[in-house]
Amino acid sequence: MKPQDDIQDIINYYSQNGEDLRHERHQLEFALMKRTLKAYFSDRPLRFLELGAGTGWYTEILAEMGHEIVALEPTENLIKLNQKRITEKKLEDRVEWVMADARNVATAVKIEHENRKFDVILNMGPFYHLEQTADRELMFQESLKLLKPQGLHCGIFLSRVGYTSYILNKQPGSLLQDPEGFRDIMTQGYFSTHPKNGTFRGHFTDLIELSELHQKSGAQIQKLHVLDPCIGGDDEIFNRLSEEQKAIWTEVLFALSSDAGFWSSGRTWLAISQAIVAE
């Protein structure tokens, strides 16, 4: 199966905009992701494959935790920023960089023997940038080939309900300006007429679609966390807290993040899954 979508405009978007301010804008998402990584992966050194490694925020966290990482990223500028960050922290002995499209991950990250496979795959962005279902399934299936038995796949998804709350908070006028685009998101998860002009484009999922993707790709969800519960589209609710308050609320919200009653109160989901092994 070959990739269906030309993602050069997405690469151009990140080449021009970078990502270093993302974690300042979305501090709760960052805090809860760090907390989740520490909750699941602090007990021993592991081998990680990071898809969509970006400028290295999570690469650095994983390396500081003692893990070994292969960081895959299709955007040259982001790879260079990632390398700079890791080198400045003197962690480069724990990281290998690969510039490639995540849909070609099984080819880009060559498997020569069992030890080349991974304990954990951290898929930080490709799922929500690949609009076509076939491309998401292709990437998922190819990445699952790289997992060790009982290995975990951690995928980040954007919620369709969360998109609605974000638009209501940040861009309420867009519903009048482009009602067809909003309907596209609600019915199929992406803008079918996006100009692909270097502005953000991506896919927003719902729980049914999330479940179907896992089933078709040969994976089973073990746990689902929402990474920004209770704030809707208003990041300032968390951003303006004191550091002490942020630490307390991070613990409270982490405890609630896997409760199904909170899944629709945020924009970003982390699905932790395993490959289904035929009996």
Q: Which structural traits does this protein have?
A:
alpha/beta, 18% strand, 279 residues, eight-stranded mixed β-sheet
Descriptive notes:
The protein is an alpha/beta fold and 279 residues long. It is built from 14 helices and 8 strands. The protein has helices at 8-17, 22-25, 27-41, 57-64, 76-88, 105-108, 126-129, 133-144, 160-170, 174-177, 179-188, 207-217, 236-239, 243-256; strands spanning 47-51, 68-72, 95-98, 118-123, 147-159, 204-205, 219-226, 268-275. Strands 1, 2, 3, 4, 5, 6, 7 and 8 form an 8-stranded mixed beta sheet that branches. The longest helix has 15 residues, at 27-41.
Report the mean per-residue pLDDT as an integer: 93
Approximately what portion of the residues adopt beta-strand conformation?
15-25%
Shape: globular
How many distinct helices? 14
Helical content band = 40-55%
Q: Which value, in Å, is the CA radius of gyration?
A: 18 Å
Order of helices and strands: HHHEHEHEHEHHEHHHEHEHHE
Total strands: the figure is 8
- Low-confidence stretches are none
Summarize the structure.
With 279 residues, the protein is α/β, with parallel strands linked by helices. It is 44% helix and 18% strand. Strands 1, 2, 3, 4, 5, 6, 7 and 8 form an eight-stranded mixed β-sheet that branches.
Task: Describe the SSE topology.
Layout: H1 8-17, H2 22-25, H3 27-41, E1 47-51, H4 57-64, E2 68-72, H5 76-88, E3 95-98, H6 105-108, E4 118-123, H7 126-129, H8 133-144, E5 147-159, H9 160-170, H10 174-177, H11 179-188, E6 204-205, H12 207-217, E7 219-226, H13 236-239, H14 243-256, E8 268-275
Parallel strand pairs: 1-2, 1-4, 2-3, 4-5, 5-6
Antiparallel strand pairs: 5-8, 7-8
Helix pairs in contact: 3-14, 8-12
